[in-house]
Amino acid sequence: MNKSDYISSRGNRKVWISFILAILMLSGAEAALQFRAYMKGGDEASVETIDDGSIYYFNEDYQLKLIQPNIDVDEGHRVVRSNSLGLRSPEIQTKKQDNEIRIAMLGASSVMGMINPVNEDTIPYRLQADLQAQFPDKKINVINGGIAGYYFADQQQLFEKVLKPLDLDLVIFYSGFNNVSLYCEDGGVAPENHGLLNLTLPKWVLSIELLVKNTAILRELRPEVEQSTDPKSLNEKPFRDSFESVLKSIQNANVPLLVVRNPRAYSRDMSEEEQYELSAFSRSKDGCFSIEGLHDVYDRHNNIMEEISRGYGIPVLKLDQLVPGGHQYYGDSIHFNAEGSEFVANLMLEELNRDHLLSDGGVK
Which letter does DSSP use for residue 162 in this model? Predict the structure, then answer.
């Protein structure tokens, strides 16, 4: 064997050793997560729990991911308390009291409070406290109808199966932009659901999503990936249709509605370094867009939601234009910290009063 062949052989061995070590590390992480889920949730946890390994389960009747009912789980970075409906919200009775106002905030991780360490730091909780102070003679319930990762179809299903039977006085629809992520998964064409089987990894595979979520800081160490999807080339029809379907479902239930435009922590008037830092989470989930592409696609789809909502006579809260960017109110690219939750709750209260959606403790 000559010297060049020897060097090549050693290089190949290093590649294989690195590959095997990576597999062993992933397997170890998976085993640790499954053991953690088992210890917290019993033998069924490794089959039924999904996503974070402990707090979620799949409700077969509703065909929805929900939080495990009636839990009080300390995950280290947050404590999640759920009610019997599988929501991060206090228990609520089916029958509404005579002096009670019920509002549901429908959405995804921003509503649920993905980075909020306690339930009391979430936007729905803060809005409930603000409304209770304004209407001390009323019983105020603001239901947290947010589950991390929800698409429009999930949000519509949650409304129809879980929230609508609660005799709501108002829905605040703060959707999040998970539907935009579909463009990156499908090469710029968001798929339509034709009732075909959706093949996914087994529910017990926990590591990959956790690794993606928990290694965003590592991705800061490498250069930004060039944009692979042009926002102007997107097939927006599935997004439009799915969003409009949610609005129709809520309006058909004769429940007043407020739609919220989705905000973000980074803006074009910031330096490139600030935008790069603050957009880390957005780039990790919508990686087919450059930072400028993210600005474009988020603004375009906020405009789509506002256009459709206005067409139905539904008021729109322009949260993306009202919340200052940066670290003061945001914990990452799109999720609010406790101070941000309070700031947003105040903006929502002002909008409810301005649009007379709640007048003298009654409903418009």
Answer: I
